[in-house]
Amino acid sequence: MPSANAALQTQVSTDTLHHIERELLRDPRLQSANSRRGYLADLRSFETWRGARPLTKLLVEEYAAHLLGLSRSPNSINRGLAAVRWWARRVADLAYEGELPRAQRDEIVTQAARVAAIEDVSGERAPKGRHIAQDELQALLRACLADETPAGVRDAAVITLAWSTGLRRSEIAGLRLESWKRQSLGQPIEVIGKGNKRRAVYLHADAVPWLSKWLAVRGSSAGPLFCPVRKGGHVAPNKGISDEALAQMLTKRQLQAALEQAVTWHDFRRTFAGNLLDRGVDLVTVQKLLGHSSPTTTSNYDRRGEETKQRAIQSLQLPLWPTAA
């Protein structure tokens, strides 16, 4: 009878990446395409490093040490470990689904459980991303306004929407014209976020004119709210704008705006959270607007600088200086 290590190795070595990708699609708990892509990328890196060695608890712990030696951040390492733990649990599921002898199946499950029980590494690094200052937002919008084509109108609308709602890039790309029509009647925009979770967001009144101007250019044809602008200024309302196209657009506009530091779409989410917290909005409300499962995740989005901490301290009051009796 083969050892548990050999049995587990057999499970993961046959057309491994294709197998992993198929299982990622099968797992009902992984509904987010972004999560599946992330797991696949992390597992590809792990399998490349692992080679033909058996998948064991000791090996995975060695892999974590290897990543630490490459100066990977704890968050990055823990994300990779989460993918490996998922795969170990999936191997156990496959062992139960197969027709293996009971003793062999139990050995595979035991080894997979040891891998799945590996804990995250400890430690923290400076958080990624930053807060977008008001003058930077204005510079981005000026860059869009300088472009007199429909693309300039569209990009300004996207930027104001991101600033006033904190939507993820994929959520912006997925908006439909019908969402805007409901919002124009004072109703919330329903967004389908990560994990197929639905939530309601509201548009800031100052963003409405920017969106209205874009719709005047886009037209009223049903379809994605934001769409490509072809050469010659032709708008294609029947086709949506991709995540990658949004990333390229933001890169283009920030270069035109001559920003000293790069910004990402996720920085707009961080800025949205920080702006609301700065104005006294409670953390749970911000959590719901961002679509986070935990307020802890939301608190990690705060990228306001040291000035915010200084203002918080100065808001405290000490008793008046005592006077002589």
Outline of this structure?
This protein has helices spanning 4-13, 16-26, 33-50, 57-69, 74-97, 102-116, 134-145, 150-165, 169-173, 177-184, 208-218, 243-256, 265-278, 283-290, 295-299, 306-314; strands at residues 189-192, 198-201. The chain is mainly α and 325 residues long. A two-stranded antiparallel ribbon has the order 1-2.
- Identify the strand order in the major beta sheet: 1-2
Give the CATH class of the largest domain: Mainly Alpha
Give the biggest beta sheet. Answer: 2 strands, antiparallel
User: CATH superfamily of the largest domain, please?
Assistant: Intergrase catalytic core
CATH 2nd-level architecture of the largest domain: Orthogonal Bundle
The ordered H/E elements are: HHHHHHHHHHEEHHHHHH
Overall pLDDT confidence: 83
Helix content: 55-70%
Return the CATH topology of the largest domain: hpI Integrase, Chain A
Number of helices: 16
Summarize the structure in words.
This protein is mainly α. Helix content is 59%, strand content 2%. It contains 16 helices and 2 strands. A two-stranded antiparallel ribbon has the order 1-2. Helix 2 (16-26) runs antiparallel to helix 3 (33-50) and helix 8 (150-165) runs antiparallel to helix 11 (208-218). The termini are far apart. 29% of the residues are buried.
Highlighted features:
2 domains, mainly alpha, 16 helices, 325 residues, DNA polymerase, domain 1
How are the elements arranged and paired?
Layout: H1 4-13, H2 16-26, H3 33-50, H4 57-69, H5 74-97, H6 102-116, H7 134-145, H8 150-165, H9 169-173, H10 177-184, E1 189-192, E2 198-201, H11 208-218, H12 243-256, H13 265-278, H14 283-290, H15 295-299, H16 306-314
Antiparallel strand pairs: 1-2
